Amino acid sequence: MSLKKEILHIAVQAQKASRFLVTLSGEQKNKALKAMAESLLKNKQAILKANKKDIEFAKGRKMPGAFIDRLTLTDKRIKKMSDDLMSVIALSDPVSQVIKMWRRPNGLNICKMSVPLGVIGIIYESRPNVTSDCAALCLKAGNAVILRGGKESIHSNLAIYKAISQALTKCGFPQGCVSLIATTDRAAVSIMLRLSNHIDLIIPRGGESLIRSVVENSKIPVIKHYKGICHTFVDKYADLGMAEEIAFNAKVQRPSTCNAMECLLVHKSVADKFIPRIVKRLKKAKVEIRGCPKTTKLVKGVKRATNEDYATEFLDRILSVKVVNSMDAALAHIVKYGSKHSDAIVTDNFPNGMKFLKSVDSACVYLNASTRFTDGNEFGLGAEIGVSTDKLHARGPMGLEELTTYKYMVMGNGQIRK
Amino acid sequence: MSLKKEILHIAVQAQKASRFLVTLSGEQKNKALKAMAESLLKNKQAILKANKKDIEFAKGRKMPGAFIDRLTLTDKRIKKMSDDLMSVIALSDPVSQVIKMWRRPNGLNICKMSVPLGVIGIIYESRPNVTSDCAALCLKAGNAVILRGGKESIHSNLAIYKAISQALTKCGFPQGCVSLIATTDRAAVSIMLRLSNHIDLIIPRGGESLIRSVVENSKIPVIKHYKGICHTFVDKYADLGMAEEIAFNAKVQRPSTCNAMECLLVHKSVADKFIPRIVKRLKKAKVEIRGCPKTTKLVKGVKRATNEDYATEFLDRILSVKVVNSMDAALAHIVKYGSKHSDAIVTDNFPNGMKFLKSVDSACVYLNASTRFTDGNEFGLGAEIGVSTDKLHARGPMGLEELTTYKYMVMGNGQIRK
Predict the structure, then answer these.
(1) For B402-406, what is the mean pLDDT?
(2) Is the separation of the CB atoms in B408 and B112 below 8 Å?
(3) Which of A161, B119, B212, B238 could share a disulfide with A180, CB 3.0–4.6 Å?
(4) What is the per-residue pLDDT across A166-205, written as a single tens digit (0 to 9) for each?
(5) Does B407 contact A at CB distance below 8 Å?
(6) CA of B363: how far to CAs of A99, A111, A338, B192, B397, in Å?
């Protein structure tokens, strides 16, 4: 079979399976999830063996330690993958929920009801747990899923996929419910991205270059997560003790994440007091500071920030700091350099707080809290398939609800249009 | 200024204006809408004069009568445009609505709130009233709008745009709130469709070829309305009197619309009774019937339907008719030939009705009612900017709510992540 035919075949099977999935009750889906979770544990040895191959290959290619760590599976990590599937069972079924229902003067009953999207394609990089995670979340939302992982984890992904597939077959689910593109040929992705008659949504999970290349080539709608250049603005009316805790947390608690702060904006009237204190604490935590001219005057030994710094998602222990003359200047800075992900204000002034929440055009805007809370679990969504920096369909942390669409069910007793 | 710079300038101004619009109250937006409605009437003579130019040009190019009719403005039609703007005032503000709000165990208050999308681009064909309609709906939802109409109505569009602009300026609104791309150069559209940093959504309004070309070229999310190949399935358990009224209405009441029926499916056990009767009535209404072999046996003088007929949106007094052996066969036909727009079942059997509503993957699914109700006004949305055949973001009739997105406003008192 040619590669094109092979990918098309997978997509057609997935579409067929999606018509099966749409008819299932929550109970039936949960039964399958449980079987999947158990099958991961049962096939642990096979998965670990496959993972070893990937690790050896990565070591041979002298990949960095962090990369190999992300790739590595252990007994504990497989247990965690299995547990994660079990926790999806506990989430409420996002499908067949009545979003709204109303009655028209002519007696028509219109019901806006949540339904699965259909077929979802996930394109991801080297974490093998994404394979089981995404399969479970898509399935719970009634969607068929086509998985395409990075070539570095192909053996692990195949072994995980096999375990999942066995479980689904045992539960009487058709093959296409979860598919994995087994070839590492890059052309497979380009082919997949053109199948807009068969695939309803593409979610890329990985670095910015992966996402940009998917967007550039896709004829299917894509939900993107570009980057998080998150700001914390310490207002003139901030409780500086609180501001310190929030800023420190936003930068240091886990600097490698998209919701970590990359730029601290400080109102000029509190800069003298606040900047030396927070910089001292950050430096102790080994954070490199890159400051505006005023910042460098306030604290010795601070590197000057360039415009490029303000536009960079460091994902590391680096922070740019800028003193602003007014709240409007802070807002203008966020417009210019922000990434519409997560931004926070610390203030005790009500109008300023409200103005910030309303004006800043980001997925998540915070008043007196750390931007690190932008996360499906922290929001209480129970699960997260990603954080969308798009505005269409889904914005911010995406849970199960965002993996559904709706349709209108219109029930009448013979109504015709006049 | 080069064309590229010109279009970019328009988009940048629109983005600036969108930051102004997001801060407005419903009252302020309504005041502007009222001024726009009044300005259309005040500038009636100028609009009619400009429209005359377009009509003369179209007549010179020997455009068909229906085309010229759509293009033509009269006193009455301008009054209607103005009235339509006034009726947008009466609609409730879709912005700053709390969609959901909840409190996390750590005391964070998370508010999912509706907000404008930002900048919307509308690409449309020759109806000049789209200019004022879309401007009003986008504005009411707090969005800046960039309008790009067909070259056939360029003079009318410019005159309408001028009237709207004057009103907005008088109300103190910045230029970019409503923009019109004045050049008829086709390259302008390609340039516009690449400005994904400035425009948040593209809505094409027109025929399938316009939409396909927009989708092919756009780097901005597009909400599409492809076509409506709508089915009515007359089940074994249908009330045949009701089925006749519904089918007749769905085909004949306005055949040129996307929600008109294009294919009638009839269960074999009622075909003998139902088909002769409905065909007789449709023929009287000058509808051409193209039938399956069984249909042609039941009624004399009926043309045989081809597979291509089943896949065609006739938008005319033509109907394909097919006898099916079972409900599953009807569902399979809809999967194969349907366009996911609107499909109906007529039945008195509860399980069959529910199965149809659940299984058919269309934006609107009907039980015992005409598909002609797929329409923003008929649904009670108060307005309609289009009917989406997409599944992402908006599906089916799009009202004001679908011109918004949401953001999460998270309010705390010093919460940090552990």
Answers:
(1) 97
(2) yes
(3) A161
(4) 999 999 999 999 999 998 898 999 999 999 999 999 999 9
(5) yes
(6) 14, 12, 36, 29, 9
For chain B, domains (ranges, CATH) are: 3-224+396-411 (3.40.605.10), 230-373 (3.40.309.10)
pLDDT at A52 over 90: yes
Instruction: Provide the pLDDT confidence category of residue A111 given band limits of 50, 70 and 90.
Output: very high
Is the pLDDT reported for residue B393 higher than 80? yes
- Alpha-carbon radius of gyration of chain A: 24
Per-residue model confidence as pLDDT tens digits over B231-273: 999 999 999 999 999 999 999 999 999 999 999 999 999 999 9
Asked if B118 reaches chain A (Cβ–Cβ under 8 Å), the answer is yes
- Residues 241-260 of chain B with CB under 8 A from chain A are 242, 245-246, 248-250, 253-254
From the list A66, A211, A41, A201, the residue with the least C-alpha distance to A126 is A66
- From the list A134, A123, A146, A129, the residue with the least C-alpha distance to A71 is A129
Say what the pTM is.
Answer: 0.93
CB contact under 8 A, B357 and A396: no
Among A3, A315, A224, A410, which residue's Cα sits nearest to residue B372? A410
Searching chain A, which residue's CA lies closest to the CA of residue B340? A407
Q: How far does the CA of residue B86 sit from the closest CA of chain A (Å)?
A: 22
Q: Which secondary structure element, helix H or strand E, spans residue A82, and what is its range?
A: helix A75-90
